[in-house]
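To: structure desk
From: M.T.
Subject: fold request, one chain
Message: Could you run this one when you get a chance? Sequence is below, nothing fancy, just the single chain.
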Amino acid sequence: MAWPVILFVGALLAALPAQELERAIAAAEALGARTGVAVIDASGKVVFRHRATEAFAPVSNMKLLTAAAVVQGLGSDHRFVTRFVLQNGRLVVHASGDPNWITGTAHSPELVFGELAAVLQRRGIQALRGIDLEAGPFTGPLRPATWPQDQLWTTYCAPTGPFVLEQGTFAVRIAAGGNGSAAVSLAAPLAGLPLRGAIDVIDTKKGAVYSAIDVGDAVTLRGKFYRRAAPVTAHAAVRDPSVWYAAALRGALADAGITIAADAPDTGAEVAVHAHTSGLSTAILRMLEDSSNFDAEQCLRVLGAKASGDGSLAGGVAALHAQLERQLATWPDGVVLTDGSGLSKQNRLTPGLLVAVLQTSLRGPGGALLRESLPVAGKSGTLADRFEGTDLVGAVRAKTGWIRGASALSGLVERRDGGTMTFAILMNYDPKKNGLNDDLKRLQERMVSAIRELGPDR
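Reply: Done. Structure tokens follow.
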């Protein structure tokens, strides 16, 4: 008689995590958040589903699909190669869509342009007839039209394009001055664009609000800075990345004594003089760990350029769609792909699609890069302060996501027996509800804790 009792107890224990997961879902839906969950075990079996075939706004969980498509389509060892050539006395720059030209790294614009200037000097080039930026396949709008048009100055709405420095942003250094105005200088990129206007220094913290806005040919300063505040570095999106790229290049050449003049010597037919390369992996890390909208859209453009010769934003989305169609047996109803970052509210994914593509991609070529680029619970990226005080710290690798009206968490959780569960949690709610996301994040963590303990296919 002991054997049936043991079976009964085992079945009861296996059911408890599923019940806990269902209770957490019910709690989220009681708060007004429609919730979809899909879970697959290490063998590929579906072990839990709730609204798994319904379409949700995935917010930044869209980046999981983008990263997977980019890594599979370009290869984890892909190199961005920007070529500089001389042609008839002009310097021609051929775009690669490189997203990695960032100050403080090996691909700092100052370093790259400094290397180029040194190459030109060794060739005896002291003057150029001009500079031509060849965009190649990277055409079209700089941002998706579906992005919030009143927030385009923010860093999370930074533009993409053929030639981009600092992830489509600029930085100014602000410190209290002694003459009633703050001391402001351009920190990056060093493009030499003029600073117009002023930031006043005030003696109280109240009202200390300031801004630096790219107006096309200059940066406009306005606002107030607290006199006793420590110096700060403020970041904002540029209006047109190519303007800053050209200005930074011209400035670096001028610093090296290379002038731009119509009567500069004719160098003859095209001659390659320099090429700068960088790798894909750092961009994928920023895309997933930092949730970089810029890197998602920029890398997707590069995928579109390789897949079909169309490096526009639309070409990138088309390449993503094609990549997913190759992975999926059928295209789920209600799925809509609008951008690569998830910032567009019109995107729609099902939890079932997301979890299936995620697991397949992690097992396929480039899967190691995707896994290592995911934030780790309690340790890195957007999960650095999640799951604190639980035994899930270090055991969860996942992508977060939030905009008003949607919250998400999808990724992997390590089982105690060494296996893994792949999960997708998508939540949508009335965007007029304020302060709901903190509760939803706690419920997501509760769900992942239950998912870790789920048993075989139910």
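Reply (cont.): The chain has two domains: 18-76+281-452, 79-279. Let me know if you need anything else for the meeting.
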